[in-house]
Specification:
It contains nine helices and eight strands. It is α/β, with parallel strands linked by helices. Strand 1 (about 15-20), helix 1 and strand 2 (about 35-40) form a beta-alpha-beta unit. The longest helix is centred in the last third of the chain and has 14 residues, at about 170-180.
């Protein structure tokens, strides 16, 4: 059920989605359901997204990553971690960038600072995008659940999702999006704490309410 357009920063109505995998497509569909327009990009070129854009309808268009970033009021980066350095920098300057990433060493190759527990995936993206406001979001929910597992505010046992950012307004934007999509929010704090909801931790891809998420965050080991 559509829960209305996002209320925070109501002028921010165009979302640039960089990455058209399962999460990117699920977010595109859900943003459009809430009245937003979307420009979506992948690494293979906009012509490869023709069928997806046809399915999404007139509120969506395909573009290059650079054009999707330039068109965005805010952006979602949902590319494999190994490709984060390919995310365009200049078009995202000054914009909030929602990072959905997790570290899969089997796919991404070993990254020493992540293995050692001295960096986070979203922190790496923030270093790559020094003029943007990176915020963790949608990284510990399965793509199929994004549009289907939300419930209205105040519902018993409402599912909760986590966010983290070094910028309060970026975390507030994700909180507003979560609420509109049907989820409570736990703000983990700065990006340096975002590891608490990443892959193989207790909170990862688990259906949990706010109290359960808070408990799982505390149980998370720093290294796996």
């Amino acid at each position: 059920m559509c829960r209305g357009k996002l209320t925070l920063l109501a002028t921010m109505t165009h979302v640039g989605i960089i990455g058209a995998g399962h999460i990117g497509q699920a977010l595109a569909r859900t943003f459009i359901k809430h009245g937003y327009t979307v420009t979506i990009a992948n690494s293979r070129g906009p012509e490869t997204l023709a069928d997806l854009v046809t399915e999404l309808g007139p509120a969506a268009k395909a573009a290059t990553a650079e054009d999707a970033a330039a068109a965005a009021d805010f952006a979602v980066v949902t590319v494999p971690l190994k490709n984060y350095r390919e995310v365009p920098v200049e078009p995202l300057a000054g914009k909030t960038v929602i990072d959905t990433n997790n570290y899969y060493w089997e796919r991404d190759g070993r990254i020493a600072e992540l293995d050692a527990g001295i960096a986070t995936t979203s922190g790496l993206l923030q270093e790559h995008l020094p003029s943007s406001k990176v915020v963790k979001g949608f990284n510990h929910i399965a793509a199929l659940d994004i549009a289907t597992d939300g419930t209205p505010a105040g519902s018993p046992n409402r599912r909760a999702l986590a966010t983290a950012s070094d910028f309060d307004d970026a975390a507030a934007l994700v909180t507003s999006i979560y609420d509109a999509f049907g989820y409570d929010t736990v703000n983990v704090g700065p990006l340096s704490e975002s590891w608490r909801v990443e892959r193989d931790r207790p909170a990862y891809v688990t259906r949990q309410n706010r109290s359960e998420l808070l408990a799982n965050i505390e149980l998370a080991p720093r290294t796996i």
